[in-house]
Design the sequence.
């Protein structure tokens, strides 16, 4: 099992810094959700005409690209063409970076459509993406996010697309904090389809000055109340050998600790958890 960090957590780091500090802090990979001022890396020269040099630099630093985190929203009918266009741009970038995983969102308007209807929209969009040249060689991962946080809801779309190139991304904080599911409930619902994870920790304290609308605020890994250890153990017992990715949302929450503090804290916290032998 390997650990990675997302560039959402280091929005001001250039590639030299990503490579130097990622290696220094003990990470195995990096998940690209934006680069510097651009959120869609497929529009950057570092990931298009200069992508070979980018790949060599990351490889020389001992870093793999654990995922490309796209902005594709499968269940938004009006975004079908833009979703397909982003997928067309993403496929060659992922291939050039030797990256298998691509994160996708669900989204969709529950005021205009029932959830089963949204799942059908998402199914049709994903099937069109999977028909693109090179798409089936990648792993498109549907995140437990927005309208699809509850694993049982996510399963509506997973069941309609049994293709092994489509799977689930378990955001461990979302399913517990927002979806009100226990780790066991989430794991059982997604079992057999989990291909990637997001981890971050939080504490419930509505009086805290940084509390979000639901009363929770983010803290360094291991300092919060989320059942991350239980979730990790469930994956370990299942034989999961994929990535554990630290989703530090510094780009969206500038008040969070700097990546120079948060990233090494995550690595120190998680390494013993994923390397300890299962009893």
Sequence:
């Amino acid at each position: 099992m390997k650990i990675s960090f997302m560039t959402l957590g280091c929005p001001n780091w250039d590639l030299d810094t990503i490579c130097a500090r990622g290696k220094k802090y003990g990470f195995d990979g990096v998940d690209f959700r934006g680069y510097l001022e651009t959120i869609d890396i497929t529009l950057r020269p570092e990931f298009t005409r200069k992508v070979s040099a980018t790949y060599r630099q990351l490889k020389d630093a001992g870093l793999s690209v654990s995922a490309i985190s796209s902005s594709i929203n499968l269940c938004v009918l009006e975004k079908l063409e833009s979703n397909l266009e982003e997928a067309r741009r993403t496929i060659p970038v992922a291939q050039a970076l030797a990256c298998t995983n691509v994160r996708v969102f669900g989204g969709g308007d529950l005021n205009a459509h029932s959830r089963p209807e949204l799942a059908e929209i998402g199914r049709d969009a994903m099937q069109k993406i999977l028909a693109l040249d090179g798409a089936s060689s990648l792993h498109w991962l549907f995140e437990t996010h927005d309208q699809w946080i509850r694993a049982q809801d996510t399963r509506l779309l997973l069941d309609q697309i049994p293709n092994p190139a489509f799977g689930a991304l378990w955001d461990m904080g979302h399913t517990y904090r927002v979806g009100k599911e226990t780790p066991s409930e989430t794991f059982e619902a997604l079992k057999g389809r989990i291909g990637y994870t997001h981890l971050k920790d939080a504490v419930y304290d509505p009086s805290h000055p940084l509390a979000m609308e639901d009363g929770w605020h983010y803290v360094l890994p291991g300092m919060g109340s989320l059942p991350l250890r239980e979730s990790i153990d469930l994956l370990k017992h299942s034989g999961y050998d994929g990535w554990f990715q630290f989703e530090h949302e510094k780009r969206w929450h500038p008040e969070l600790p700097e990546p120079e503090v948060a990233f090494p804290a995550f690595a120190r916290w998680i390494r013993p958890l994923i390397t300890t032998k299962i009893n």
